[in-house]
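@here heads up, posting the sequence + SMILES for the zinc ion run so it's all in one place. Ping me if the SMILES looks off, I pulled it from an old spreadsheet.
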Amino acid sequence: MGGCLKEQDLIELLLNEASAPVQNHVKACLPCSRRYRKLAGDMKVISAVLRGRPPKAAERSRSWSRLAVVAPVCASALFLFMAGMWIGESLQMRGGEKLARHLPQATAQPVARVMPGETMLASSSESLSASDPITPVALSYVNFLEDTFSQDDSCASRDNSFDPACSSSWFSGETP
Amino acid sequence: MSKPPSFGPDYQKLYQEHHGRILRLCRILLSNPEEAEDVAQEVFVKALDYWGNNSMPESWPRWLTTVAINTCRDRRRSSWWKRWLKSTDDFDEREYPDEHAAVEHQVIRREQYERIWQRLRKLSRRQQEVFALRYIEGWSTQEVSEALGLTPGSVKRHLTRAIDNLRKGLA
Ligand SMILES: [Zn+2]
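bot reply: prediction finished. Complex structure tokens:
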């Protein structure tokens, strides 16, 4: 027999079906003899394991492992949703603040133009400094504008069909 | 453990002598302890029917083994079985039986124990059957080839692949 044995030959030897040349080779060849002893040792362990009870498959723990995958995804989705809501709200609020800040400014500009020499007015305290002079006429005009816009805001937030104050502001532009 | 069906002392003897062997064979072919017990019980119920017909097989041990293999095949063919097999690649660690932790001074690690069963489960049906009959039951290559309708060469190839795969579980 030329060359070393195949695994199949060693298995046949283990199961008492090996031919005489195979048996002789294992006796004479140290590597094959080692391979055979290793195979026999491994098969002893495998037999012992397979004589035992098969471990019950972990259906429950598998469902938990599925949950472990699904839960972070759900949590992330919820987080993104909440973050989106929060960002949306804060943008709306900022937009509202900006509007509130800019509207009086925008409307105050003509006043400033109407009254040359007067500094541009703004209702926002941050755009006002102690050195900014405000005339009573300009201030009352700004207050009027602020009142008007705040009234519009309050009407926008509810059904104003039957509110005379709201309906007047709603229809004032459309029905002269 | 389920109770043997009662059908006289001869049948009781047959049950006592072969139930353990048939149960082990079913465990290897199904890798599921509960299913294996069910199928082993079913095999002995079939034996009882056979017994009732006053016909005797040539060899009861051989008859029982063949019926066990066929019954396991039927079980594996059912759709729910395939679903179960797909859904259970992992093993429950709590199910690891401590009594098998040591084999002749060689300690089998729990991971090894689980890996070998996982490897067994992943063998093809043919490989499992050839391994069970040839290695566990000790049938000759010729007997296995006749029982499973394979050539002796094919039996040897299936056995070599099965053993090769199972040994990888020891790594
Ligand atoms: Zn050699």
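MO: Residues A 4-5, 25, 29, 31-32 surround zinc ion (CB under 6 Å).
MO: One more: Residues 7-53 of chain A form one domain.
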